[in-house]
Amino acid sequence: GAAKLVVVVAIFLLTFYVISQVFEIKMDANLGHIFARSALDAAAHSTKPPRNKCGISKACPEKHFAFKMASGAANVVGPKICVEDNVLMSGVKNNVGRGINVALVNGKTGEPVDTKFFDMWGGDVAPFIEFLKSIQDGTIVLMGTYDDGATKLNEEARKLIAELGSTSITNLGFRDNWVFCGGKGIKTKSPFEQHIKNNKDTNKYEGWPEVVEMEGCIPQKQD
Protein backbone atom coordinates (compact mmCIF):
# COMPACT_ATOMS: atom_id res chain seq x y z
CA GLY A 1 0.00 0.00 0.00
CA ALA A 2 2.79 2.35 0.86
CA ALA A 3 4.52 1.59 -2.43
CA LYS A 4 1.36 2.34 -4.38
CA LEU A 5 0.95 5.60 -2.51
CA VAL A 6 4.52 6.61 -3.36
CA VAL A 7 3.93 5.77 -7.03
CA VAL A 8 0.67 7.75 -7.13
CA VAL A 9 2.32 10.75 -5.48
CA ALA A 10 5.28 10.52 -7.87
CA ILE A 11 2.96 10.38 -10.91
CA PHE A 12 0.97 13.33 -9.56
CA LEU A 13 4.11 15.40 -9.04
CA LEU A 14 5.45 14.46 -12.47
CA THR A 15 2.15 15.36 -14.12
CA PHE A 16 2.01 18.65 -12.24
CA TYR A 17 5.58 19.44 -13.29
CA VAL A 18 4.90 18.68 -16.95
CA ILE A 19 1.69 20.74 -16.98
CA SER A 20 3.39 23.68 -15.31
CA GLN A 21 6.27 23.58 -17.81
CA VAL A 22 3.88 23.49 -20.77
CA PHE A 23 1.86 26.38 -19.31
CA GLU A 24 5.02 28.46 -18.83
CA ILE A 25 6.10 27.76 -22.41
CA LYS A 26 2.71 28.85 -23.72
CA MET A 27 2.74 31.96 -21.53
CA ASP A 28 6.22 32.85 -22.76
CA ALA A 29 5.11 32.30 -26.35
CA ASN A 30 2.01 34.44 -25.89
CA LEU A 31 3.92 37.20 -24.17
CA GLY A 32 6.58 37.04 -26.87
CA HIS A 33 3.90 37.34 -29.54
CA ILE A 34 2.31 40.29 -27.74
CA PHE A 35 5.62 42.11 -27.35
CA ALA A 36 6.61 41.38 -30.94
CA ARG A 37 3.30 42.72 -32.21
CA SER A 38 3.60 45.83 -30.04
CA ALA A 39 7.08 46.42 -31.44
CA LEU A 40 5.77 46.07 -35.00
CA ASP A 41 2.89 48.44 -34.28
CA ALA A 42 5.28 50.97 -32.78
CA ALA A 43 7.59 50.66 -35.79
CA ALA A 44 4.67 51.12 -38.18
CA HIS A 45 3.53 54.17 -36.24
CA SER A 46 7.02 55.65 -36.21
CA THR A 47 7.35 55.23 -39.98
CA LYS A 48 4.07 57.05 -40.70
CA PRO A 49 4.96 59.97 -42.95
CA PRO A 50 4.93 63.31 -41.12
CA ARG A 51 2.30 65.90 -41.98
CA ASN A 52 3.69 68.62 -44.20
CA LYS A 53 2.93 72.31 -43.77
CA CYS A 54 -0.54 73.26 -45.07
CA GLY A 55 -1.07 69.53 -45.70
CA ILE A 56 0.79 69.58 -49.03
CA SER A 57 1.79 66.23 -50.53
CA LYS A 58 5.56 66.79 -50.44
CA ALA A 59 7.73 68.75 -48.03
CA CYS A 60 9.35 71.89 -49.37
CA PRO A 61 13.14 72.26 -49.55
CA GLU A 62 15.02 74.81 -47.50
CA LYS A 63 14.47 78.46 -48.35
CA HIS A 64 11.00 77.73 -49.75
CA PHE A 65 7.56 78.48 -48.33
CA ALA A 66 4.81 75.84 -48.47
CA PHE A 67 1.42 76.96 -49.73
CA LYS A 68 -1.94 75.44 -50.58
CA MET A 69 -5.02 77.19 -51.87
CA ALA A 70 -8.45 76.59 -53.37
CA SER A 71 -10.97 78.74 -55.17
CA GLY A 72 -14.50 79.15 -53.92
CA ALA A 73 -17.18 76.53 -54.59
CA ALA A 74 -19.97 78.22 -56.56
CA ASN A 75 -21.36 80.99 -54.31
CA VAL A 76 -21.58 78.73 -51.25
CA VAL A 77 -18.10 77.92 -49.90
CA GLY A 78 -15.39 80.56 -49.89
CA PRO A 79 -11.79 80.14 -51.02
CA LYS A 80 -8.96 79.05 -48.75
CA ILE A 81 -5.34 80.23 -48.71
CA CYS A 82 -2.65 78.67 -46.48
CA VAL A 83 1.04 79.60 -46.33
CA GLU A 84 3.60 77.96 -44.03
CA ASP A 85 0.85 76.17 -42.09
CA ASN A 86 -0.91 79.47 -41.46
CA VAL A 87 -4.45 79.69 -42.86
CA LEU A 88 -4.58 83.28 -44.08
CA MET A 89 -8.06 83.30 -45.61
CA SER A 90 -11.05 80.96 -45.33
CA GLY A 91 -14.75 80.85 -44.68
CA VAL A 92 -14.02 79.72 -41.12
CA LYS A 93 -11.94 82.86 -40.53
CA ASN A 94 -14.79 84.88 -42.03
CA ASN A 95 -12.42 87.03 -44.09
CA VAL A 96 -13.36 85.97 -47.63
CA GLY A 97 -15.93 87.43 -49.99
CA ARG A 98 -17.37 87.51 -53.48
CA GLY A 99 -14.88 88.51 -56.16
CA ILE A 100 -11.10 88.20 -55.95
CA ASN A 101 -9.57 87.28 -52.58
CA VAL A 102 -5.97 88.38 -52.07
CA ALA A 103 -3.35 87.44 -49.47
CA LEU A 104 0.02 89.20 -49.30
CA VAL A 105 3.06 87.52 -47.73
CA ASN A 106 6.55 88.83 -47.03
CA GLY A 107 8.82 87.21 -49.62
CA LYS A 108 11.78 87.04 -47.22
CA THR A 109 10.16 85.84 -44.01
CA GLY A 110 6.95 84.13 -45.12
CA GLU A 111 4.98 86.23 -42.65
CA PRO A 112 1.50 87.49 -43.65
CA VAL A 113 1.27 91.15 -44.65
CA ASP A 114 -2.39 91.71 -45.56
CA THR A 115 -5.61 90.01 -46.69
CA LYS A 116 -8.46 91.60 -48.64
CA PHE A 117 -11.26 90.73 -51.04
CA PHE A 118 -12.69 92.86 -53.83
CA ASP A 119 -16.20 92.43 -55.19
CA MET A 120 -15.87 92.15 -58.95
CA TRP A 121 -19.59 91.67 -59.55
CA GLY A 122 -21.33 94.50 -57.72
CA GLY A 123 -18.31 96.50 -56.52
CA ASP A 124 -15.91 99.03 -57.97
CA VAL A 125 -12.60 98.04 -59.55
CA ALA A 126 -10.86 101.31 -58.56
CA PRO A 127 -10.00 100.25 -54.95
CA PHE A 128 -8.63 96.97 -56.31
CA ILE A 129 -6.39 98.84 -58.75
CA GLU A 130 -5.09 101.10 -55.98
CA PHE A 131 -4.41 98.06 -53.80
CA LEU A 132 -2.47 96.33 -56.59
CA LYS A 133 -0.38 99.45 -57.17
CA SER A 134 0.47 99.69 -53.46
CA ILE A 135 2.01 96.20 -53.20
CA GLN A 136 5.70 96.40 -52.34
CA ASP A 137 8.43 94.70 -54.38
CA GLY A 138 9.35 91.27 -53.03
CA THR A 139 5.83 90.55 -51.79
CA ILE A 140 4.24 87.16 -52.52
CA VAL A 141 0.71 87.61 -53.87
CA LEU A 142 -1.91 84.84 -53.70
CA MET A 143 -5.33 85.23 -55.31
CA GLY A 144 -8.47 83.11 -55.51
CA THR A 145 -11.90 83.73 -57.00
CA TYR A 146 -15.24 83.26 -55.28
CA ASP A 147 -18.60 83.40 -57.10
CA ASP A 148 -17.56 85.84 -59.84
CA GLY A 149 -14.16 87.50 -60.04
CA ALA A 150 -14.17 88.99 -63.52
CA THR A 151 -17.18 91.14 -64.42
CA LYS A 152 -15.76 94.44 -63.14
CA LEU A 153 -12.15 93.73 -64.08
CA ASN A 154 -10.86 96.23 -66.62
CA GLU A 155 -7.73 96.33 -68.76
CA GLU A 156 -5.69 98.21 -66.15
CA ALA A 157 -6.47 95.72 -63.37
CA ARG A 158 -5.70 92.75 -65.63
CA LYS A 159 -2.39 94.34 -66.67
CA LEU A 160 -1.35 94.87 -63.04
CA ILE A 161 -2.13 91.22 -62.21
CA ALA A 162 -0.25 90.08 -65.32
CA GLU A 163 2.78 91.99 -64.03
CA LEU A 164 2.65 89.78 -60.93
CA GLY A 165 3.26 86.75 -63.17
CA SER A 166 -0.24 85.70 -64.26
CA THR A 167 -0.89 84.41 -67.77
CA SER A 168 -4.57 83.47 -67.34
CA ILE A 169 -5.82 86.83 -66.09
CA THR A 170 -6.39 88.13 -69.63
CA ASN A 171 -8.84 85.26 -70.23
CA LEU A 172 -10.58 85.31 -66.84
CA GLY A 173 -14.32 85.46 -67.50
CA PHE A 174 -17.65 85.54 -65.71
CA ARG A 175 -17.79 82.95 -62.92
CA ASP A 176 -14.54 81.27 -63.97
CA ASN A 177 -12.63 79.62 -61.13
CA TRP A 178 -9.05 80.77 -60.75
CA VAL A 179 -6.19 80.54 -58.26
CA PHE A 180 -2.83 82.23 -58.66
CA CYS A 181 0.40 82.75 -56.76
CA GLY A 182 2.90 85.31 -58.02
CA GLY A 183 4.96 88.19 -56.75
CA LYS A 184 5.61 91.90 -57.10
CA GLY A 185 8.70 92.38 -59.22
CA ILE A 186 8.79 88.72 -60.28
CA LYS A 187 9.87 89.61 -63.88
CA THR A 188 8.89 86.12 -65.09
CA LYS A 189 5.68 84.15 -65.56
CA SER A 190 4.58 82.31 -62.44
CA PRO A 191 4.31 78.50 -62.59
CA PHE A 192 1.59 78.61 -59.93
CA GLU A 193 -1.76 79.21 -61.63
CA GLN A 194 -4.94 77.22 -62.27
CA HIS A 195 -7.95 78.34 -64.30
CA ILE A 196 -11.22 76.61 -65.19
CA LYS A 197 -13.71 78.26 -67.52
CA ASN A 198 -17.37 78.61 -66.70
CA ASN A 199 -19.05 76.30 -69.22
CA LYS A 200 -22.64 75.09 -68.84
CA ASP A 201 -21.73 71.81 -70.58
CA THR A 202 -18.91 70.94 -68.18
CA ASN A 203 -19.74 72.82 -64.96
CA LYS A 204 -19.75 70.69 -61.82
CA TYR A 205 -22.21 73.01 -60.10
CA GLU A 206 -25.15 74.68 -61.81
CA GLY A 207 -23.76 77.93 -63.14
CA TRP A 208 -20.22 77.40 -61.78
CA PRO A 209 -17.26 75.15 -62.65
CA GLU A 210 -15.58 72.85 -60.15
CA VAL A 211 -13.24 74.10 -57.45
CA VAL A 212 -9.60 74.53 -58.47
CA GLU A 213 -6.88 73.64 -55.98
CA MET A 214 -3.16 74.22 -56.04
CA GLU A 215 -0.15 73.59 -53.81
CA GLY A 216 3.57 74.10 -54.06
CA CYS A 217 6.76 75.63 -52.70
CA ILE A 218 7.49 79.33 -53.20
CA PRO A 219 11.19 80.27 -53.35
CA GLN A 220 12.25 82.62 -50.60
CA LYS A 221 13.29 86.05 -51.85
CA GLN A 222 17.05 86.47 -51.70
CA ASP A 223 18.81 89.79 -51.21
UniProtKB/TrEMBL annotation:
Keywords: Disulfide bond, Lectin, Secreted, Signal
Cell compartments where the protein resides: Secreted
Single GO MF descriptor: carbohydrate binding
Keyword Transmembrane helix: no
Stretches assigned to the ILEI/PANDER domain: 98-185
GO CC entries: extracellular region
Main location group: secreted
Keyword Zinc-finger attached: no
Domain of life: Eukaryota
InterPro entries with a match to the protein in the record: FAM3, ILEI/PANDER_dom, ILEI_FAM3C
PANTHER family attached to this UniProt entry: UNCHARACTERIZED FAM3
Family: Belongs to the FAM3 family.
Protein name: FAM3C protein
Gene: Fam3c
